[in-house]
Specification:
Chain A has 116 residues and is mainly beta. Chain A has no helices and 11 strands. In chain A, β5 and β6 form a beta hairpin. Chain A is globular. The mean pLDDT of chain A is 92. Chain B starts with a strand and ends with a strand. The chains are: A mainly beta (116), B mainly beta (109).
């Protein structure tokens, strides 16, 4: 149990385009989903937390107009990187948590984004 | 401020035992998690401790002492596939996960 999928696993795009990443909880209902970014050889950085049906809460320094998050259902959250630039190239990972906040976060496999 | 400390890198020999320490200072405590992350992959859940003591799960064990803000992950009978980064994360008073920078474990034959 507790499987989280992400799609796509790899994306290469031109500078200025937008990219959408999907995160799905396959066998449980995720009341809360998290989006992280990780640069090579660095630690996980939380970008935002989203609860189903409400607006995402962004961490300090993360532009909400650039990283659009939608958590429309209990099994799906999307992250859209708008007008992507080379500095947005990174490993984007979502995680999902069910029920109470004490529950474990389970991670998706990640999406590697390369902006040319 | 909130802080999680763990060693940057450790080296151990295949078949041996290694202990990865984690110390924390957070505003509140609602549990401590250990995750394993292989290079280029997402983290996978290993263990969760909320009460003091040792939790054993196969070759992996995790220990917690809340009074000293200390935890360790113990890996026994090391295998080459255990080469990975091990992340310590603490759930604070708002149930927000505070992440350590991770310990890169290198296993040598």
């Amino acid at each position: 149990g507790a499987v989280v999928s992400q799609h796509p696993s790899w994306v290469i795009c031109k500078s200025g385009t937008s990219v959408k990443i999907e995160c799905r909880s396959l066998d449980f209902q995720a009341t809360t989903m998290f989006w992280y970014r990780q640069f090579p050889k660095q630690s996980l950085m939380l970008m935002a937390t989203s609860n189903e049906g409400s607006k995402a809460t962004y961490e300090q320094g993360v532009e909400k107009d650039k990283f659009l998050i939608n958590h429309a259902s209990l099994t799906l959250s999307t992250l859209t990187v708008t007008s992507a630039h080379p500095e947005d190239s990174s490993f984007y990972i979502c995680s999902a948590r069910s029920g109470t906040p004490q529950e474990t976060q389970y991670f998706g496999p990640g999406t590697r984004l390369l902006v040319l | 401020g909130q802080n999680i400390d763990q060693p940057t890198e450790m080296t151990a020999t295949e078949g041996a035992i290694v202990q990865i320490n984690c110390t924390y200072q957070t505003s509140g405590f609602n549990g401590l998690f250990w995750y394993q992350q292989h290079a280029g992959e997402a983290p996978t859940f290993l263990s969760y401790n909320v009460l003091d003591g040792l939790e054993e799960k196969g070759r992996f064990s995790s220990f917690l002492s809340r009074s000293t803000g200390y935890s360790y992950l113990l890996l026994k009978e090391l295998q080459m596939k255990d080469s990975a980064s091990y992340l310590c994360a603490v759930s604070d008073s708002n149930y927000q996960l505070i992440w350590g920078a991770g310990t890169k474990l290198i296993i040598k034959p």
